[in-house]
Write a structure and sequence with these properties.
Layout lengths: L1 E5 L3 H12 L3 E5 L3 H8 L10 H6 L4 E4 L2 H7 L2 E4 L14 H11 L9 E4 L7 H9 L5 E4 L9 H6 L4 E4 L5 H11 L6 E4 L1 H31 L6 H10 L19 H14 L6 H23 L6 E3 L15 H11 L4 E3 L22 E2 L3
Parallel strand pairs: 1-2, 1-4, 2-3, 4-5, 5-6, 7-8, 9-10, 9-11
Amino acid sequence: MKIGVIGAGRLGLCFALLLEKAGYDVIVSDCRSNYVSSLNVRNLNTSEPLVADLLAVASNFEATTNNIEVIKQCDVIYTFVATPSSEDGSYDVSAVWKVIEDIQSCEFSLEGKSFVVGCTTNPGDCEMFQTQLNPYGVDVYYNPEFIAQGSIIKDLEHADMVLIGGSGKHLEDIIDIYNGIQVTAPNIFTMSTKSAEIVKLAVNCFLTTKISYANMVGEVMTLSGMEDEIDVALQAIGSDTRVGNKYLKYGYGYGGPCLPRDNRAFAACAEKLGIEFNLGSTIDNFNDEHAKFVKDYFIRANKDKFPFLFESIAYKKGTDILTESQQYRLCLDLLDEGYEVYVEEDMVHDICDDRIKFSKPPEEIFKIKL
């Protein structure tokens, strides 16, 4: 079976390369012509682990700028196009609609093909996609991934859960895909597309809640003069199997390109449904206040007003992503307070505030550690 992937960004490319590794013929499309050329000559400059290695040995993989060619060649067509956040927190799925327009413009038969949405959408979006594609005989599925930048390949191969919304001719084929790409046995849940869209947001909203709960406990212990025992206290709480230790650590608030946006999207969904006591909004507000708490804590701790030293300011060490990075926010806050700031890891050197120093720090510094 040949599988198509429309939108070969970080996630789309990783997914496509794992499909190829599992034995599928794969064709991807992307609007960036230079990027497509790099993929076809197997020479891609990327910081995402394992991608360059998989691309270098991919023999049944090709790239194009033509979405129609992907649709024509494949019966199962994934899309991982960008769905940025709207002002109200919901996802802007206009790029997915453009792919659907491409599907509708095809002059060949589409009967029996499946369109699998892998990017995050709002609850109910895939039902609308299905309504538009029903006349063409195309089934729509929702199949999002639970990954983090900087470990996408690993996360796809070891996913705790595979979520598939929808039904139709290729459901078993989609399930088989995960039997092929996962190193661990896939734990697969099938349901309607709308339920799957809710689950995707709800999982990440729960994670933001758990991170925020741990940070609240840490704040209480810090203000109680017990900050040296935060870790052991949280380990004790997490040892209760009803709680669990994953994501139960004191530190920065949640950040990056995924968790904050999913949390706000879930909050937007709840608000539209009339839920008055909206947990997503509460958690988002706490995350903002926690960033201020962390800033004040380090300013108080640095009584000698030494320059501050960060090991990394990316949202996750080892990545070049500053999107909603709490470390970067703290860095900027300290700069705004008049402190000198040095950073050890220079992966974000070219994209961050030019007040930040990547040179050798002075001997007397205050190292940021949470």
